[in-house]
Amino acid sequence: MPERNEEDLALSRRAAAGDAAAFAMLVEKYERPLRAFLLRMGAGHVADDVAQDAFLKAWRRAGQYDGRARYSTWLTSIAWRCRIDQLRRDKRALEPDDRGSEVGSDEVQDMLARLSDGERAALLLCDGHGWTHAEAAELLQMPLGTLKSTVARAKAKFREMWERGHE
Amino acid sequence: MSDPFDDFLGKALAPPERDPDRAFVARVHARVLLHEAIRAQRQSALQRLSLQLIALLAVVAAFILLSQSPDVAAFVAESPAIVLTALIALFSMLIAVFASRAGSSSDSAAMSAFSRV
User: Pick from A54, A69, A100: which residue ends a domain?
Assistant: First the structure.
């Protein structure tokens, strides 16, 4: 098990035993990439609500984290399901907003908005957050081959838009 | 030579470099504490309810046993009004005791949850 996973596993075990301070350390460590991902996915109005729900679920299920996957992967998979639930019950989550620019330029956010949900998530995770294709495929519940072609297609579309903007 | 697009992509999609958002961490921490307080309150309410059910069952069982005694059965047959009055008084007293306990303990649990958050 990588050293980082061991450290997070230890914190998660302490959280499972009721140590809220240990869990706060995990929140401090992972709120930045998780909220950036949710904002980039266009969850602007509700990104923080979804992130809070995900952390609360991670606290309740702390005993289920076994350290085999990275903590960020485990946490993002919880947040991904929270986001899907949020989209089902709250139409506000679908409204366009400009909070995505909090994590980067408007130009990048506009380009991302032109990709499909799956393409955007696959590209963000693999090329922005350093996830392996296997990790992203598991989260997005896609076969590995499909995930790889989704990333390649998203990258090609992104490149096309970028080149058009820089002509 | 690296592709300028790949350089751009990596930088553009990576999470922004910044310090942890302490306000967000505090909000999550408060929600965790509130969740735990509510869970503890729910647990103690369930415990109290099961104890009260056991007590009530014990009282009912005692009454059934008493009613099977020939002396008590004769007394009930002779003066049913007195027995009925006694039963109503006892039942009212039980309700009053249970209601006052439930009220005071839920108030104190809610107050402690609120003060912790």
Answer: A100
pTM value is 0.75
Question: What is the distance between the alpha carbons of residues A22 and B34, in angstroms, rounded to a whole number?
Answer: 17
Q: What CATH number is given to the structural domain containing A130?
A: 1.10.10.10
Q: Which domain holds residue A166?
A: 105-167
**Domain-terminating residue out of A48, A75, A100:** A100
Q: Find, in chain A, the residue whose alpha carbon is nearest to that of B18.
A: A32
User: Do A52 and A2 fall within a single domain?
Assistant: yes
A118 and A78 both lie in a single domain:
no
- Looking at the fold, whether A63 and A120 belong to one and the same domain comes out as no
User: One digit per residue, pLDDT tens: chain A, 167 residues?
Assistant: 666 788 999 999 999 999 999 999 999 999 999 999 999 887 677 889 999 999 999 999 999 999 999 999 999 999 999 998 888 887 655 555 555 555 567 788 888 889 998 999 999 999 999 999 999 999 999 999 999 999 999 999 999 998 887 76
What's the token pair of residue A21? 């301070």
Chain B residues interacting with chain A (CB cutoff of 8 angstroms) = 5, 8-10, 12-16, 18, 20-22, 24-25, 27-29, 31-33, 35-36
* CATH number of the domain where residue A70 is located: 1.10.1740.10
> Could you give the ipTM of this predicted complex?
0.83
Distance CA B89, CA A127 (A): 75
DSSP string of A42-111?
T-GGGHHHHHHHHHHHHHHTGGG--SSS-HHHHHHHHHHHHHHHHHHH-GGGGS--SGGGGGS-HHHHHH
